[in-house]
């Protein structure tokens, strides 16, 4: 590529081999480690026509019967796994969120918005900024400043647009409130949809402890599936308020469930001392967080969490432990889980390995995109 110094961020460039063959075309970026995000494997234009065809193909991969029924929250574009490097698009009913990994992608944003409007006719399109790697504990605050309405009409009060504005989506018939104006984390993690689907028939009559519960997707699932008791824990009262609102949306708020706005490790220690035991403990912690009792890091602390969870399991109890931290390899995840089980003196065996659903595909050429580690373990 000649004359790289003169390039502008977002400029379309061709990749040309030494023998003159055109290898592809993409957007030049000067902000990060990636010089060119390649959007096509020939020398053709990177324009709205290309975006329309890529979006159409991505939507067909999902809507050709692959998504479960009664589900209105799903990922339409999963970056380079859908041949659209740097772009993510999520669907929340009539609303879409668009996330760009790099400022160079801004050059393509008008084409993306125009193509999305033509293909989906959404009520509104929101910008979702990815959070910094060391996100604060109240993740619901997200990277709010960088978010906002890009197109369409949200229909809410002007003051609501950035934060509180909520729309209802469904996952296999269950109802959840999501806030597209919050950006990266609107309040439902669709990449765990298949894990929830696998758990659903296992939950009747179980005592469930849902740690790091966020807006309570697993708690709602457990209550709706006939769990005997659901204890929901999150450091953020704001997250718990939303979890309780999600219970109410599904007419599940009359059951005797418990809500604890506390540190998960503190709660686990108290429950152990009280002799409380659970048939299913769900531990899906963030990669990092800052809390009043210090920082949490999944790489440093996961084994302590696993050990503490083991100590409140009933004799036939199960532990679901998950991490979406891309920096934690499957091998290191396995090592930390084993270390925790040894520390607690509770031998565990792997019963099920959860994976991301069909709308989070992983290109074989991009193994780093297989970020989810999710194990269901039993004694
Ligand atoms: C990535 S979300 C977890 C996703 C969740 N399991 C779900 O199903 O949606 C992380 C959540 O952990 C909470 N959190 C972070 N540190 C915590 C801690 N030490 N104890 C309890 N909750 C914590 C955050 O407030 C946030 O709601």
Q: Describe it for me?
A:
The protein is of the alpha/beta class and 379 residues long. It has 3 domains: 37 residues, no CATH class; 120 residues, RNA methyltransferase domain (HRMD) like (Transcription Regulator spoIIAA, 2-Layer Sandwich), CATH 3.30.750.80; 190 residues, 3-Layer(aba) Sandwich (Rossmann fold), CATH 3.40.50.150. Helices cover 25% and strands 27% of the residues. It contains 8 helices and 19 strands. The strands form 5 sheets. It has a 7-stranded mixed sheet, sandwiched between helices. Strands 4-5-6-7-8 form a 5-stranded mixed sheet. Strand 11, helix 4 and strand 12 form a beta-alpha-beta unit. Helix 1 crosses helix 2. The N and C termini lie far apart (57 Å). About 3% of the residues have low confidence. S-adenosylmethionine binds next to helix 4 and strand 15.
Descriptors for this entry?
single chain, 379 residues, alpha/beta, Transcription Regulator spoIIAA, Rossmann fold, 3 domains, seven-stranded mixed sheet, five-stranded mixed sheet, 19 strands, globular, binds S-adenosylmethionine
